[in-house]
Design brief:
single chain; alpha/beta; 8-stranded mixed sheet; 11 helices; 46% helix
Length: 317
């Protein structure tokens, strides 16, 4: 019987989280679409991982799938991590394409939260967000909208749980760019293969941040200086960042390598890919990142501003 559930755990950051949980001694239930990757995951973690194939955007199918995992007890850890994206300008995207990304990336977490609250009696629920939920970039409108929606959704549910179910801790982990299969299998209309915008981090950086959120019952964690800059930079200079990203935002997501036409993508179904955390990025990759408690970071930033204003007032006076 799994005591931890990972939504979207067959590859990428979700797979890194599964690995970290197993390393800690947890039994893990994994929900994802790709049957071959799920089978490989069960082989890699024989006896420690149980999987079920389901689309996180399909609420009815998910309920039945999770019931089979939870037949013998309730988990104490639940991580919502599934995502999908398209490297495309909004005007080029089809209605069904945009809807599909939102259904997977945002409503997948909504569906996960609903089932976590149904099955859990205590423990930690962690939702995986992104710095792009604070400062969106061009070329990923549906993904950025979904991550922004996750912030609002989690904030609302957290306030409800603080009053009605304080035995459950709800955390949000805001991530920077990582080397994952996302850039190999996402739909792409760029003239080149997409890449994570540097600086790029290993998926294990994200997994360690999720473990920290579980260990500390963190409300929100900002992972890496890029996320810190996105959060606070957008507060101070949103117009400047708009103009900067208008010039370079698309190009910074291009790898410089031509993209072969007609390659399959995973938007409406899984594609053939190994069950690995990493995606094969061949540039500089960081295996560590400063992880900041978001509440503490805000106090330090705004406390520093107040202190500077106070000192300046004394000097002027």
């Amino acid at each position: 019987m799994p005591n931890a559930i990972v939504w979207g755990g067959s590859a990428g950051i979700g797979r890194a989280i599964v690995d970290a949980l197993v390393e800690r001694g947890h039994s893990v239930g994994v929900v994802a679409r790709g049957r071959d990757r799920l089978a490989a995951l069960e082989v890699d973690h024989a006896g420690r991982v149980t999987t079920v194939s389901a689309d996180v955007g399909d609420a009815a199918a998910l309920s039945a799938a999770v019931d089979t995992l939870m037949a013998d007890g309730a988990p104490t850890i639940w991580v919502n991590c599934a995502m999908a994206t398209s490297f495309s300008r909004f005007a080029e995207m089809e209605v069904e394409e945009f809807d599909r990304i939102v259904r997977t990336t945002f409503l997948g977490q909504v569906n996960g939260m609903r089932l976590a609250l149904k099955h859990m009696t205590r423990g930690n629920i962690v939702c995986v967000g992104s710095g792009l939920g604070y400062r969106p970039v061009p070329g990923q409108s549906a993904y950025c909208a979904s991550k922004h929606a996750i912030d609002g959704f989690v904030g609302s549910v957290r306030s409800e749980l603080l009053k009605s179910r304080p035995e459950l801790s709800l955390g949000l982990v805001q991530l920077p760019a990582h080397d994952t299969p996302q850039f190999t299998w996402a739909r792409n209309r760029l003239s080149q293969k997409p890449q994570p915008a540097p600086p790029v981090h290993t998926p294990q950086v994200a997994a360690r941040a999720v473990m920290k959120a579980i260990d500390t019952n963190a409300r929100e964690l900002l992972v890496g200086m890029p996320v810190f800059k996105l959060v606070f930079g957008d507060m101070v200079l949103p117009g400047y960042i708009d103009r900067k990203l208008a010039k370079v935002g698309i190009d910074m997501q291009k790898s410089g390598t031509p993209e072969p036409g007609g390659r399959p993508d995973n938007l409406f179904g899984p594609v053939d890919h190994a069950s690995t955390p990493s995606g094969g990025f061949d540039g500089d990759i960081k295996d560590n990142a400063i992880t900041l408690d978001a509440d503490l970071a805000r106090k330090l930033v705004f406390g520093g501003v107040v202190a500077i204003a106070f000192v300046l007032g004394l000097l002027i006076g």
